[in-house]
């Protein structure tokens, strides 16, 4: 056996998956206690902007948008202008015919999910998709629940079933993966500067003070 420079098959790339962002809505966020609302919106924005920038196949879905839960976070819809919102009555996204029609139309077996709440809106479709042979990743810090316990037990349950957890910044950097990819370098670092927290501040500092760039 010898090592090669081939990336592992478990790493996500822009063309190999569908991102499903679920129920990022006002009413769902009011009771979310496992993550601060500002951080949640920031992480959702990072994911949405990364998906838009890298051309990831994306599904946006809401529940009872007009009658109860309210609109999807503007940080997401602003990043993906014109993206159709699939509104549901079902708590489990996977039981909605319009969503499943879109999953099948796109036709990718690898799914990345995030949304509110982890224990209901994410567990339902994640376990259902796994049961039907899909490969599922969940962006843990772009999900939230009514308590730390609810979020953590939901993540435990999904991981035990075969879901692969990741974080929002990890998701974007895994799409970039090589700083020598100059066509997406400025976009990736630009998103990081805006939504990447202290990492983004570090980029701003390095570029401002030293003109530094990764991979150059």
In short:
The chain is of the alpha/beta class. 50% of the residues lie in helices and 14% in strands. The protein has a 6-stranded parallel sheet with strand order 3-2-1-4-5-6, with helices on both faces.
**Low-confidence parts, pLDDT < 50 over ≥5 residues?**
none
Shape: globular
Helix content: 40-55%
Whole-number mean pLDDT: 94
Strand order of the largest sheet: 3-2-1-4-5-6
Give the count of helical stretches: 10
Distance between the termini: 32 Å
Q: What order do the helices and strands follow? A: EHHEHHEHEHEHEHHH
Oligomer: single chain
Strand elements, count: 6
Largest sheet entry? 6 strands, parallel
What does the radius of gyration come to? Answer: 17 Å
Instruction: Give the percentage of residues in beta strands.
Output: 5-15%
Q: Structural class of the secondary structure composition?
A: alpha/beta
